[in-house]
Design a protein that fits this description.
Rossmann fold, alpha/beta, 20 helices, single chain, binds glutamine, 545 residues
């Protein structure tokens, strides 16, 4: 058995160039060569986890199996490699300092003075190694957030440098850089990348590979310049031009033998060469002609640095996976529910869509607009999938319209509601009173038993499933019987707590709401049944029109 190998993926020039997709694709191609891989993300935030960062600020909060509230990159790792993520795979500056200080308080440093160097890098190394070991990985792909040259990355780079010194043959560095193509020049410029490499050198690290992101593919001339100036071997500057689908990146890398070169750098031998599943998949989606219109109705705050697409990346990817599986390309439209509050006539536009999704969310703004939209799709037989808040609001709409419970609501929006269809358990109420918001929601994977013969059970082809959650409020079982008598069925229940996890309407072509987030477990090569089901139902409806 060889030592565990580590590939550090760091960014140069600017952020948002696709480091996450690069790290994920590296994972995928090395799995294709027969190695057990794990992906780890190191985030520079002092936040302990991403749960306390606004999604419009930082992108989606991805939930791992054990309930870790992590950076959205973990979603890509999982989608590309199929390996379920947990808290081991997510390291933040906050976690590292918290542990160092905890140990200091417990006298675990035995009276030594505790210093930023080496104690902080040592803790980073300990966490990286532990993540690799507990995931039983032969190769760990470790991505650092941010870009080289930022002050906050330094201690992480120092940790990586120490690992390279101690394990010369087991560590490789990949710099993901950006090559701008200024319009007035008309060619890709390598200089910013050269500076990024120098900055990395100043931290004592030599890049083994450069992944050259850019609008176009890097030509040989510039490949040679970069290799020369940056001390790189032949074949280690990898062109990574923009692609239509991120799922083509593993094939793009493989075509340049990035996998082979990585193995050689790490002194490993290829065990197989199998990317067939990706090839078949890529070919299939390339050939798709027919499209389908899907609207996502939600409440949106002013967006900061991140776009909506980042805030809901797992939902978007899950829709694509489901649509591709059924042979169609999804055309997504974002609808701000507040427009329906201001101009109710606009609800009619919902008839022009093949399917509607209401994703997760928090707080009061825009929810009356969402509830009107849900009423419209329920009454007009438009296929509907409600994710978390989308399930809760569907329950409220049904209670208000069908059971005539005026003022029915979630206590999140109306604590005095006469009919609290969505309520809060005593522990959660205590958390809210005491301002305990970090990692206190109902988080991570829970079991769910499905009702025999339900549409949901048929789609899952299983009697019991496990899905990931992130919510504080839940369906109030006091209303269960009345709702069910009126055709609103609870078809998925957590066996330990009896909490309602899935609702389904009788007499509707497709109306399903989940208290969990199915989108976190959808993968391109294994689409999620509820998204596949939504698209299939929408295709049926199309035929009828
Ligand atoms: N705001 C709701 C809750 O906390 C739903 C959360 C969500 O959609 N993720 O229960």
């Amino acid at each position: 058995m060889t030592n565990t190998k580590y590939i550090f993926v760091v960014g140069g020039v600017m952020s948002s160039v696709g480091k996450g997709v690069t790290a994920s694709s590296i994972g995928a191609i090395l799995q294709g060569r027969g190695y057990k891989v794990t992906n780890i993300k190191c985030d520079m935030y002092v936040n302990i986890d991403a749960g306390t960062i606004r999604p419009t600020e930082h992108g989606e909060v991805f939930i791992g199996e054990d309930g870790i509230e992590a950076d959205q990159d973990l979603g890509n790792y999982e989608r590309f490699t199929g390996n379920p993520m947990s808290s081991l795979n997510y390291i933040t500056t906050g976690q590292v300092y918290q542990e160092v200080i905890r140990r200091e308080r417990n006298l675990e440093y035995g009276g030594e003075d505790v210093e930023v160097v080496p104690d902080v890098p040592n803790e980073i190394i300990r966490r990286i190694k532990m993540a690799a070991k507990k995931n039983e990985a032969e190769i760990a792909v470790v991505e650092f957030g941010g870009t080289v040259g930022e002050y906050q990355v330094l201690l992480f780079l120092e940790a990586a440098r120490i690992m390279k010194v101690k394990h010369q043959r087991d560590v490789a560095f990949v710099l993901v850089s950006y090559l701008p193509l200024p319009k007035h020049v008309g060619e890709m410029k390598t200089k910013p990348t050269q500076y990024a490499v120098r900055t990395l050198n100043a931290a004592g690290i030599m890049a083994d590979f450069i992944v050259a992101r850019g609008e176009r593919a890097l030509d040989n001339r510039r490949r040679d310049i970069l290799a020369n100036v940056c001390n790189l071997l032949d074949g280690t500057v990898i062109a990574a031009p923009d692609v239509d689908s991120i799922y083509d990146v593993p094939l793009q890398f493989h075509a340049q033998n990035f996998d082979g070169r990585l193995l050689r750098t790490l002194h490993l031998r290829a065990r197989k060469n199998d990317l067939q599943a990706w090839k078949t998949f890529s070919k299939k989606i390339r050939g798709l002609k027919k499209s389908m219109k899907i609207a996502i109705v939600g409440k949106y705050f002013g967006t900061g640095d991140f776009t909506l697409a980042d805030s809901y990346i797992s939902v978007i990817e899950a829709i694509k996976h489901g649509a591709w599986d059924r042979g169609v390309k999804p055309e997504l439209t974002w609808i701000d529910s507040e427009t329906y509050e201001q101009t109710p006539n606009r609800l009619q536009e919902l008839s022009t869509f093949d399917a509607i999704i209401v994703p997760g969310g928090f707080g009061t703004r825009g929810i009356e607009g969402i509830i009107s939209a849900i009423r419209f799709v329920r009454e007009h037989n438009i296929p509907y999938l409600g994710l978390c808040y989308g399930m809760q609001l569907a329950s409220i709409e049904f209670a208000r319209t069908v059971l005539h419970l005026a003022g029915a609501n979630t206590v999140e929006c109306d604590p005095q509601s006469p009919y609290p269809i969505i309520h809060v358990n005593p522990q959660q109420a205590k958390n809210i009173r005491e301002n305990r918001y970090g990692a206190t929601m109902r988080l991570g994977a829970y079991r769910c038993v499905l009702k025999k013969g339900s549409q949901t059970q048929k789609l899952y082809k299983a009697d019991e499933i496990s899905e990931r959650h992130r919510h504080r409020y839940e369906f109030n079982n006091e209303y269960r019987e009345r709702m069910e008598q009126a055709g609103f069925e609870i078809v998925g229940v957590n066996p330990e707590t009896n909490l309602a996890e899935i609702i389904e309407l009788k007499n509707h072509p497709y109306f399903i709401g989940t208290q969990f987030h199915p989108e976190f477990k959808s993968r391109p090569l294994r689409p999620h049944p509820l998204f596949v089901g939504l698209v299939a139902a929408a295709l049926e409806q199309q035929k009828k029109r």
